[in-house]
Design brief:
The protein has 139 residues and is mostly helical. It is built from six helices and two strands. The chain has a two-stranded antiparallel sheet with strand order 1-2. The radius of gyration is 24 Å and the shape is elongated.
């Protein structure tokens, strides 16, 4: 009678982990080098072997990146996610800080957009060499 391998015990290579997580193999290696993903088991030949828990962590990181969190924030969120005794207030504090940062960046981008719209409106866009857009960039 052979031993049955439970799905939780299944290991996958980096390509399979990339497919299941939606994170490229290159980024998986990068996240591992940053410590966002713990060192994974390796075969005798040195190939990485990922478990379902690793894929779950990679999905978490992918979702956090999609929301624009920086690597330091993601590292902190991962620690909180893995700590079942955490206070949700710590998570909320990080998210609120990120919302405030996004609001600052949105305001800055809106100001850039208004400036560019004004410059585009002032530019004749014809065969003449004078251009207020280039003049503004040169100042």
């Amino acid at each position: 009678m052979s031993a049955r391998i439970e799905p939780a015990d299944e290991r996958m290579n980096i390509g399979q982990a990339a497919l299941r997580s939606g994170v490229s193999a290159k980024m998986i290696r990068h996240y591992e080098s940053l410590g966002l993903l713990p060192r994974v088991a390796r075969t005798d030949a040195g190939y990485r072997q990922y478990a379902d828990a690793d894929v779950h962590t990679l999905r978490f990181v992918r979702r956090a990146r999609a929301l624009g969190f920086g690597m330091a924030e993601i590292a902190e969120l991962l620690k909180l996610w893995q700590n079942r005794r955490r206070a949700s207030s710590a998570v909320k504090r990080i998210a609120e800080g990120h919302v405030a940062d996004l609001q600052r960046r949105i305001r800055a981008m809106e100001a850039m957009k208004r400036t560019l719209e004004r410059l585009v409106e002032c530019c004749h866009g014809d065969h003449r060499p004078d251009c207020p857009i280039l003049d503004e960039l040169a100042d």
